[in-house]
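[AMINO ACID CHAIN]
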Amino acid sequence: MEIPSDPAEIAALADAKRKHGDVLEAFDVVSRAEHDGIRSSELDYLLVFLLTELGDFDGALANYFKLGLNRSSDLKSRALEGRIRKDLAFLKAGDARRQGLADAAEVYRAAYLATGDPYPGINAASLLYLSGQEEKGQQIARAIAAHPASKAAANYWDLVTAVESQLLLGDEAAIDTLLEEHRPDASVALADRASTIRQFMRLREAPAISNALIDRIAKALRPPPVLVYCGRMFREGCDEEVALRARIDAKLDEIGACISYGPLACGADILIAEAVLERGGEINLVLPFLMEDFIEHSVLPGGASWISRFHACRARADEVILATECNYVGDDNQFAYGTRVAMGLAEIRARQLETTATQLAVLRDDAADLPRSQIAGTNADIAMWAALGRTTHVVPAGPVERNLEFPGIAAYAEGLERGAYSILFADYAGFSKLGERELPIFARKVMGPIGEVLDEFGEDILFRNTWGDALYAVISRPTVAARVALALQRRLAVPPPELGCAEDGVGMRIGVHHGPIYKGTDLVVGQPLWFGTEVTRTARIEPVTPTGTVYCTEAFAAMLALDGADEFTHHYVGRVALAKGYGQLAMYRLVRIRD
């Protein structure tokens, strides 16, 4: 993606991406500008604001003061401190939460009293309610409900401010009138609607406010679902294509989806992508392996004319994601893995937008009678989504012509198995400074606890190996890998004093990933061996991970969104250059939600 050099153009580009709900891309734009030394007050504000949108509230508050936004006379910058403190307060419980909310309320209240602007005022009012100061909150809410901007509701923000003030006052009829007369349309930024919903849902904690009414407001504001799609491959020039496209359009009208994730095989995939683009929507292509191999094995088999349509869609895609940057090796696990990555990314995006992810599948008419035991394919994709408890919208393929011509491929070596697993690499920064006298202490006080932590997870640790201070483990699934990684960090958070290396920068650094790999036998030592491109990639993450943290890949974050989102969260840190020139990856910092 080309980044302009003018700060105003950079800010406009980042804000456009944010408004469309792509907070990660917006953050990449702003952070790259900061890295290149391009600064402005608007870019400083956006950097901090986007950190709050990504859930990194500690990082947002630190940068708020580091960049001097606390010294700004701008209302937007002053109100941002209140938002960060509000977000941090919601991470606490009991009296600590109430006090944090009260402190945030005072920041907003001061901005409101200084300016009379309804935006900090309504935030102050809501936070006063949440911190048990309902009478003070009602006073501000009445003033805002009577404000000319609230009465006119001429734009989205005036509307939702008016609705929130009436919610605090308990005037259900006024809310219904506002939403009926000024219903938000498709021009309202998806990210703004999501932010508003989060604000309303937090008010569920206030005993005096009707949860049913909050849910009605959220439903009126909620963006359409994020789409993850799959479908039948078929030959070019099929007479049924026009009718199938009409059925896809009708289903998209019903769903209302405008953001999609999926592959781009010949047939239904390309039809869906073309339909989304013609509606002005966004396609995010998730290919299971290298593009050249995907074209050979999933596009060209339907005929050469699909290739130009593939490239036309690819050129207009918001993002093209390779689930693995390796060749196709004749393993259906590669397709299944790509599908799960697409599903996980759709789920992450849906949560950012406070909406849901749903599946669109183009299915052969008799597919319901087919067994669903295969690893890959449309039936397997539907079964995978159903196992997650999600909804699938089915479009009948009709009598499209299959008759595909797949190229042959040599099977991988005999005696090897393949599957998708979680991979962990870790080392102990500072190990190289230890002398001969400290090495036995290190073995006992560092490597010993590592072994104990791994033992706690039993058979979920499929493989483990160490050399020096390094650890390599293969783990059954992402949730377990996340627990292992964070348990290791917690156990070894403080360097053993006997090592005499308590200075900054000493401690564990851990990288985790999830992907398809080989399982075989090490022909040198005769022991089990787990290997592959994704193992090598994970090994390049750990050296660039800050000490005391856990970095995970976008693929791991996607899998975790499907497998254990209630226990963990991840803060986007941008595209990080891997060790030994192994390219760049979008990386996240993994944390446990309660921490």
The chain has a mean pLDDT of 88. The first strand starts at residue 226 and ends at 231.
